[in-house]
Amino acid sequence: MPSEKLDNLTRKNHQGAVAFVSPIDYAPLDTIVTGLFEEGKVPFLLLLDRITDVRNFGAIARTAECLGVQAIVVPSRGAAQINGDALKTSAGALNILPVCRENNLHETIRFLQQSGVTVVACTEKADEAVGAAEIDFTGPVAVLMGSEEDGISPDLLNLADVKLKVPMSGQIQSLNVSVAAGIMLFEVARQRVFSGK
């Protein structure tokens, strides 16, 4: 291709070659889950269904790492690109926290459930609220969060073992997904801290 096209891609001295690479290495989920159990750790995972905003993704990753999540799972299609903005917003969390890119989140949820992991969906469509429900999060758990546009896909929501909503008393009744994720992850982390897990 003409060197002008490469000049448009980068201002650095490209010497006639430009490559696009992922800023992180993706991890295989089955290896992570098996490793956690073998190490005697209780899995705490985060599943993100079609989170497309890179800054939301970065903020969620930062909160997840701070609260003890051991891996983030994203679909291979329809998810935010992990780019410089996501890395910056994550404050380095994406350099620490494994990210698993899975082809089919349905199969992923079934695999987790067969592995003894409880899948908890955070959705405004739930009857019970986070914190009010008598749900034990001290065992293996995967929190499922949905897209900024329409939440969790109905087919994935149907697979969840538990559905919880964030209780709200304001007029807007809608939270940014990174804030909702923080609230949900905090409840899991809170229970684990007080139980010693």
Structural notes for this entry:
With 197 residues, the chain is an alpha/beta fold. The protein contains 7 helices and 7 strands; from the N terminus they run ααβαβαβαβββαβα. The protein has a 7-stranded parallel sheet, sandwiched between helices. β2 (71-75), α4 and β3 (99-102) form a beta-alpha-beta unit. The protein is globular.
Structural class: alpha/beta
Number of helices: 7
What is the terminal separation in angstroms?
Answer: 56 Å
The dominant shape is globular
Widest sheet: strand ordering: 3-2-1-6-4-7-5
Strand content: 15-25%
The helicity comes to 25-40%
What is the compact description of this entry?
The protein has helices spanning 3-9, 29-38, 54-66, 84-89, 105-114, 154-159, 177-195; strands at residues 44-48, 71-75, 99-102, 118-122, 128-129, 141-145, 162-165. It has 197 residues and is α/β, with parallel strands linked by helices.
